[in-house]
Amino acid sequence: MRRSLLTDLSSALIALILALTIWVVAMREQNPIVEDHFPQAIPIEVKNKGEDLLILGGFEEEVTLLIRAPQRMWGDLEAENFYAYVDLADSGVGPHEVPVEVEHPETVRVIEKSPDVVSIALDKVAQKWFRVGVNILGDVPVGYRYGVPVVTPSQVAVSGPQSLVDQVEVVVIDLQLRGEKATMGKPLEPGPQNKIGGTVSGVEITPSQVMVQLPIEQESGYRDVSVKVVTEGTVASGYWISDIRVDPSTVTVYGHPQRVSELLGFVETGPVDVEGVNANLTRSVTLVLPEDISLLGVGRVLVRISVSPVLGGQTIRVSPTLQGLAPGLEATVWPETVEVILAGPLADLSALQAEDVQVLLDLLDLGPGTYKISPQVVKPDSLEVQSMVPDQLEVVITEL
Q1: Confidence grade of residue 195 (pLDDT, cut at 50, 70, 90)
Q2: The pTM is what?
Q3: Which of 2, 13, 189, 383 lies in the 20 to 30 Å Cα band around 182?
């Protein structure tokens, strides 16, 4: 009886095992295990890095996986189902070989990781303060000089890995000059350099930009003056001078400071003969310089005179009107008159009165000093300004 019962139990167990085996085989045939590379790279996260440490030079930040998973599961797998990381607990300054760990769903088996180990170098976080130096490249024109550059703020912080911060010897700015004649100011990015002048990469500068101001002024005995074209003769009957241009319109002269300061703010050209002219003309002419005054550069200018049929044109000589001069100041203008060449309907030109045209000089907010100012012409709306000679006036403002 007992033997018979044991025999029946054994038969039942064998039958159950066979059934399970058949079921497993059937399930595998319906949903086989597939081994393949997962199509997406998994980002590697860094865990437990000391707050006072930095990673030098980066590392392989993604891992590719060879996995096994049921066929039906492959369509549902996404990168978010995997979590790859390296654990830097107890890792100090220096190089380290750290294994890549991957957490994944229970039904997935990771067969291979690439990389399996990553190389990570750690360094201490460091910060140093440096005064910003300025390298001035290029130069100002002859007759000008620049002063000491001013940097705001004057100091910056250099931060990053200790080994790189220790390489920084100076922090400098390259300021390029391209013939500027006035004080310049601009924001620029300072750069960290090592002992031999090479750039140190991998560090951060705070603030990333500073304001650099370089004072530029004209030297004593030098002066920029306007060029006034002088013509002689009369153009052909039925024609008029519709425009006069000179290149350059401003030149630099030099000499004894006292003699230079006595100039009236302009120099004249030699006379340009326009007698009987009925077409545009271009002439290279010399400048008439006072005694003991010299010209910086070539001593000739190019004068272009436009001659047009008389459709309506008129030249008005006007004394400039000053506007905006602050109380307690007085201003002297050179030259004292300006020639304004107007064009428009003959009837309007015939009716034009001297007071209908004004040449305004805006002196608002200007203190004592010498200025070159381009005037503004106020005229009847029907008339157009063809040109103005000179196109810049020198204004000297002094205290009463």
Answers
A1: very high
A2: 0.53
A3: 189
